[in-house]
From TrEMBL:
Region (Disordered) residue spans: 1-24, 185-205
InterPro entries associated with the record: R3H_dom, R3H_dom_sf, SPAG7
Domain R3H residue range list: 44-108
Pfam families with a match to the protein in the record: R3H (PF01424)
PANTHER family referenced in this protein's UniProt entry, alphabetically: SPERM ASSOCIATED ANTIGEN 7, SPERM-ASSOCIATED ANTIGEN 7
Name by which UniProt lists this protein: R3H domain-containing protein
Domain of life of the organism encoding this protein: Eukaryota
Length: 234
């Protein structure tokens, strides 16, 4: 090496700490941008594939549900947007960051509450399960109707029963024996309800019947008194 080269080399300065940090940051920025572009390209590809899948689903008259595999929240949002644009319904099921997935439904075949509850609970759902639950629900309705009918019949039966005891009501007025006769006449029968058929035939009211009973008792008492008086006289 000549003298001039040695002098020039000795004058060169090594890179400073600031320069090294700037180079590191620049390299990191380039890596970040590269990753961002790669992620962006992946999103675009996923959106294009999802749009094709949803379009095929819409055109297939034999499908009413389209289930996607486990997806993160960002990808599920893309599916939601595409489904909404296509006029579909979209629901997510499963545990976040574990097995969360999304399923879309055609609006003319929306999910029932039974189906949604089953999927939310991680349970299987198919036509056989839907039929079985429908039959069970119909059976419950029938049982409820029968229970209500029984309740109404019992209520009507209770309403048809006298709300008080005629024998106790009139015992103090006409005596025990007469009250029992009145009670028997006013018990419910199949033809006329509370008023017996005999009362209906002669068109007498309960009050008139009791009045007749009281009159008979009065005559009986007078007759007994007369007989007693005759016995004393003899």
């Amino acid at each position: 090496m000549d003298l001039l080269g040695s002098i020039m080399k000795s004058m060169e300065k090594p890179p400073t700490v600031d320069t090294k940090e700037k180079l590191r940051q620049k390299k990191a920025q380039e890596v970040y941008i590269k990753q961002q572009n790669k992620e962006k390209a992946r999103m675009i590809q996923f959106r294009n594939e999802t749009e094709k899948k949803v379009t095929s689903f819409v055109q297939d008259d034999h499908q009413t549900r389209l289930k996607f595999p486990t997806l993160n929240k960002v990808l599920r949002n893309i599916v939601h947007e595409i489904a909404e644009d296509a006029g579909m319904l979209a629901y997510s099921f499963g545990e976040e960051e574990v097995d969360r997935y999304i399923m879309i439904f055609k609006k003319d075949s929306p999910p029932s509450e039974d189906e949604l509850n089953a999927l939310r609970n991680g349970q299987e759902w198919n036509d056989d399960i839907a039929k079985r639950l429908s039959e069970q629900r119909e059976q419950v309705k029938i049982e409820e109707m029968l229970d209500e009918e029984k309740r109404m019949m019992l209520k009507r039966t209770n309403q048809d029963k006298p709300k008080y005891n005629y024998k106790e009501k009139f015992q103090h007025l006409v005596g025990l024996e007469a009250a029992e006769q009145a009670a028997r006449k006013t018990e419910t029968n199949k033809s006329y309800g509370f008023v017996p058929s005999e009362n209906k035939k002669d068109q007498r009211s309960i009050e008139q019947t009791l009045a007749d009973i009281r009159e008979k008792k009065r005559l009986k008492i007078e007759n007994d008194n007369s007989q007693n008086q005759s016995l004393k006289t003899d």
